[in-house]
Amino acid sequence: MMAADELAGRLTKKNLVGTILLVLMCLSLPTLTLSEPPGEPCPHGDYEVEKGICCNKCPRGTKLVEKCNATGQRSKCESCPEKEYTDQENFHPNCHRCKTCKVHEETVSACQKDQNTVCRCKAGFYKSKIDSEAYQCLQCTTCGENKKQKQECTAEKNTECECIENYYKAKSKCILCTNCTAECQHHCSTALPVTTIDPKNDQYLIKTIAVVAFIAGVSLAVVAIVTFVATKRFTRKKLLKQSSLPADGSPDPCEQVLVHNEELSDNMGVKAVPQSPVSEQEPSNLPDCIPLEIKIPDLIYTVLDLVPVLRVKQLVRSLGVKDTEIEQAEVDHRSCREAHYQMLRVWAERGSLAGAGGRGGMMHWPLLQELLAELRKMHLGHAAEELETKYGIQ
Hints:
- Helix content is 41%, strand content 16%.
- The protein is an alpha+beta fold.
- Strand 1 (46-50) and strand 2 (53-56) form a beta hairpin.
- The longest helix is centred in the middle third of the chain and has 44 residues, at 199-242.
- The N and C termini lie far apart (153 Å).
């Protein structure tokens, strides 16, 4: 009994293993079927006309007359007519027209049923491409003056030229070498050195040049300012010297200034007036002179030369001239300069009546000081400085 049970158990295990193997084989069958490569629809060289119907192509030199209609049939082909060709297997109903050689071309081989005409440029001409397919035959170039032939002209390539000895190429011309250059090494005692530029050194050089240029600019500006100040001081001292104290032994200094300025009155319009007597309690030093009196017309024309035309009205308004007086001056005088002169004249005469001006058409210091102050308020300091320089005012 035990032997029978053991045998039955072994058979059961074998059956189970066999069953599993059988199931695995069944599952793998679809996969194996799908992995097989599909069959070619048509044999090599044929083409499919309809599903399942394959026709043959016509050989070179022929064209298709009638395609096949069923499996196993062959297409009907016939030879190309004269002056036509096909150079590949095809299924076209027409052949290609043979090429005719153009001007400046010659025939290498005539057209055949399976090959087109072969042309090339004639001697003395070369092929110049127009695009990827078209071309034209152009006449070969002849090397010009001071040139020699480097490569002979062929049907496919133009002539190549180069400069003769001791000449170099510049703008398609060959020019005679006259000095040492890269193209004219025979004029050099030694070969030209090849120099390389270090970018770091180049940047350092640029920075150095910029610093030097900045220092030079500042130095020039300082020199210009110093020169201007020195010239201005020298001019003032010279003018003051001409109208300052006289030499030893001369009479009253203010009288000397008066005589000197009367001699210059034609050019400067300046007249000096002596100061009132010095009190006995004052020290024995030389007395100061009363500020110069200036001819009013001369001053006005000088102001008009220094002040911009468009700012004269602003100046006279700041000096107290009324708008009605400005308008009256413009009505009375068509000339802009004369109208401006009249405006300044109104101011000067009013100052004279108020006691600030001098007598006999002369202007005294208080009125001139008012004018200089207003010029500086209007940022016309250069005009004020010119007036001070002209009249020796410090």
